Amino acid sequence: MDGLERYRDIVPEFGSFLEAMSRSLPVTARINTLKTDRDRLIFRLTAAKVPCRPFSWYDLGLKLELEKPGNLIENLMGHIHVQEEISMVSPIVLDPKPEERVLDMCAAPGSKTTQIASMMENRGLLVANDPANTRVASLRSNCERAGAINVVVTRYDGRRFPSQKFDRVLVDAPCTGQGMARKDLSVLGRWSLKRSLGLQRLQRPLLKRAMELAKPGGTVVYSTCTFAPEENEAVVSWALDQVRRVRLEKVLVKGLESCPGLVEWNGSLFGDEMEKCARYYPHQNDTGGFFVAKLIKE
Amino acid sequence: MSQSSLKNRSPFQPLDWAEVVEMWESRFGIPLSIFEGASFYRKGRNVWIFSLPEIPDLRCESVGLRFMSVRGRVWKPTTYALQLFGHVATKNAVDLGPDQAEKFIAGERQSLEAELEDGYVVVSYQGEVLGCGLYSRGELVSQLPKERRIMKEGIENCLSSGGS
Ligand SMILES: C[S@@+](CC[C@H](N)C(=O)[O-])C[C@H]1O[C@@H](n2cnc3c(N)ncnc32)[C@H](O)[C@@H]1O
């Protein structure tokens, strides 16, 4: 459990946290409403004796008692998308509507893109951007399997995304991924303060650019799957200082337990409003770890 | 580069809506209304379907969903487009039984007696579209993309009757 000791004072019930981090993640998937609906899908899985249980907090999320959900024909047909439970939070907080213009700035491999496309009912415009050549292939393939016709894929560096206006922008930033340790333990060994600070140098201008691209009244959501405040609150509070007329809005997803964002860390003050961000720890909802901030442009 | 030049240089060339959807109507009996509001673009051999009347002023890698591919006069619907629109097909569509579906999913060919014209057909199982098949002289050949095939041993829920 390398690199987690530094969180002893900010994570409640630290012992349970460490214990949860050492267990593997439950297998979860999201129902793709572009191709099926919830009742129909659950009926099919039940008829096929695939043990599945809907999440308590999100009626399109399913826990599956199954080793290889990728081999379900429902996956082949794009009726489900295998996706970690907590990662379904960012699109829900983003709350995209059909007919809007939405940018997913760091989109590959497209779990959240396909979720957003289905929330938009395949209407409007969803730009799925990612500069990483190899990852764009899986982004495109996931969008096709999901049946998304409202997605265009672009490959800009998000920091220099062309000037266009969007109703909503998601920045699901590249991060040190500590929260994914339940899927891949090696992320913990690779963590270092230097890596967090290196990523911060990328995360800050990404979020700043996202704020610039939002229309007045528009929404920007910033999320990571790491615990490091350097990549979370320290990014959000910096960006708030850079772009005028942007305010934080409280992140609240009913049915999910979370902790407020940090007001300070190791001597850095982030400001009281940072409490409006949400930190999701693995032992709270039996998921991966996650951070979400919601910003509104005035 | 100015915005307009970006658009003019787009490799995605707009296609006539009616021309495209009429091909689907005549082959599959799919009502034109299901494509209302969408637009079609061609790049190389691929034709794409997109949700809006115009593509945005951006350098796009892809626009919407690959809808069909064209080689000379022959066109082939993609599995993904059929999974999205094939459920309303009224002809050249076939619903397979469990054993046949299993073969189809594994990417195999099989003999099949069905009321189909030779050419590309919509293949479904229990009323849900699996993808595109090629039917000719009593044989059905699966056209599922390789990465979407599932070998028989691997299929988890294939076939609800048996289930594994
Ligand atoms: C956490 S992953 C995104 C996961 C994705 N949102 C999903 O739900 O499937 C972060 C992504 O940011 C991308 N990225 C890295 N540098 C970037 C940049 N300068 N601009 C935009 N995206 C970038 C990476 O290629 C990576 O795919």
Which percent range fits the helix content of chain A?
25-40%
Order of helices and strands of chain B: HEHEEEEEHEHEEEE
Mean pLDDT of chain B: 90
- Radius of gyration over C-alpha positions of chain A, nearest whole angstrom: 18 Å
Main sheet properties of chain A: 9 strands, mixed
Beta strand % of chain B = 25-35%
Integer tally of domains of chain A: 2
Q: Which residues of chain A form runs of ≥5 with pLDDT under 50?
A: none
Query: Terminal Cα separation of chain A, in Å?
Result: 42 Å
The CATH class of the largest domain in chain A is identified as: Alpha Beta
- The number of E-state strands of chain A comes to 15
Inertia-based shape of chain A:
globular
Architecture of the largest domain in chain A, CATH level 2?
3-Layer(aba) Sandwich
- What's the CATH topology name of the largest domain in chain A? Rossmann fold
Q: CATH class of the largest domain in chain B, please?
A: Alpha Beta
Number of helices, counting only DSSP H or I runs of 4 residues or more of chain B: 4
CATH architecture of the largest domain in chain B, by name, is Roll
Strand order of the largest sheet of chain B: 1-2-3-5-6
What would your notes on this structure say?
The complex is a heterodimer of chains A (298) and B (164). Chain A has 298 residues and is of the alpha/beta class. Chain A has two domains: 233 residues, Rossmann fold (3-Layer(aba) Sandwich); 58 residues, Sun protein, domain 3 (Alpha-Beta Plaits, 2-Layer Sandwich). Chain A is built from ten helices and 15 strands. In chain A, the strands form three sheets. In chain A, strands 5, 6, 7, 8, 9, 10, 11, 14 and 15 form a nine-stranded mixed beta sheet that branches. Chain A has a four-stranded antiparallel beta sheet with strand order 2-3-1-4, sandwiched between helices. In chain A, a hairpin with a 6-residue loop joins strand 2 and strand 3. In chain A, helix 5 packs parallel to helix 6 and helix 8 packs parallel to helix 9. Chain A is globular, with a radius of gyration of 18 Å. The model of chain A has no long low-confidence stretch (mean pLDDT 97). Chain B has 164 residues and is of the alpha+beta class. Chain B folds into two domains: 82 residues, Nuclear Transport Factor 2, Chain: A; 69 residues, Archaeosine Trna-guanine Transglycosylase, Chain: A, domain 4 (Roll). Helix content of chain B is 20%, strand content 34%. In chain B, strands 1-2-3-5-6 form a five-stranded antiparallel beta sheet. In chain B, strands 7-9-10-11-8 form a five-stranded mixed beta sheet. Chain B starts with a helix and ends in a 22-residue tail after the last strand. Classes of the chains: A alpha/beta (298), B alpha+beta (164). The structure holds S-adenosylmethionine. S-adenosylmethionine binds next to helix 5 and helix 8 of chain A.
